[in-house]
Amino acid sequence: MILTVDTLTKRFEMHVLDGATVVGLDGVSVNVRDGEFLAVVGPSGSGKSSLLKCLYQTYEVSSGSIRYHPADVDLATCDDRTIMRLRGSEIGYTSQFLDEIPRVSAVDVVARPLVESGMPAESARERARDLLSELGLPGPLFEAYPATFSGGERQRVNLAQALAPRPRLLLLDEPTSALDPETRRLAVDLIRADLGPETTVVGVFHNHEMVEALADRVLVLGDGRRRDLLPVAEFEGVVA
Ligand SMILES: Nc1ncnc2c1ncn2[C@@H]1O[C@H](COP(=O)(O)OP(=O)(O)OP(=O)(O)O)[C@@H](O)[C@H]1O
């Protein structure tokens, strides 16, 4: 087991609504197994992104716990230094949008986390080039700035950057939403080939094919609650 999520609740106090509360997650419990690919599905507003943001601690948890076993810590309550250390070394997160860095080339955007964790710059750039070409990014764009890229091109850079360090726990929030079917297939092939059993993935996907091609198990959310947790083979027919 890598994660034990216990009765996780996230409420948002809406100051603009006179302090009314919006519930993002309502008592969600789930165990995440070492090395598995857990897909998180559910209708819009069901709490998928909130779950990932609580795991990454972008959102402060209202109640409940998130036991991260490799470091023997509760991510919901541990101090910021511990979170920053884990983010730098073993927990990766990517949303569907690339955080652009002005005047940094696509290759360097992808290589940056590797260089920051100590890989020599040329090896990091080589891995970055490999990942970008596996995702079908046209060669001439490798040294260009992602600010001018199309949505799908940017998302390829984003996904490559998330995969590059092969984190122990990778949180993917709709990393392929802007990709065409052909590029989505490249993304599936790359994720399967590049991530070994030492990486556990919790990934939000709207696309059924992505879930079926990648997931071991599927967590179904609805109105912030856990509706189901099932092996992917039994997932067919469930509305995502
Ligand atoms: N920062 C926030 N402030 C206030 N409410 C929020 C915030 N983030 C999420 N929510 C609310 O929490 C609920 C769950 O949102 P969340 O983004 O987790 O859903 P989702 O399943 O990821 O949706 P989608 O598929 O549309 O991205 C929604 O009602 C949303 O309005």
UniProtKB/TrEMBL annotation:
Family matches, as InterPro entries: AAA+_ATPase, ABC_transporter-like_ATP-bd, ABC_transporter-like_CS, ABC_transpr_LolD-like, P-loop_NTPase
Q: Write the record's keywords in alphabetical order, separated by commas.
A: ATP-binding, Nucleotide-binding
Q: Which residues form a coiled coil?
A: none
Q: Give GO cellular component annotations, separated by semicolons.
A: plasma membrane
Source organism's superkingdom? Archaea
Known Pfam families for this protein? Answer: ABC_tran
Domain ABC transporter positions: 3-240
* SUPFAM superfamilies assigned to the protein according to its UniProt record, in alphabetical order: P-loop containing nucleoside triphosphate hydrolases
The molecular function GO annotations come to:
ATP binding; ATP hydrolysis activity; transmembrane transporter activity
PANTHER family per UniProt: IMPORT ATP-BINDING PROTEIN
Instruction: Please identify the protein, giving its name as recorded.
Output: Phosphonate ABC transporter ATP-binding protein
Native organism = Haloglomus irregulare
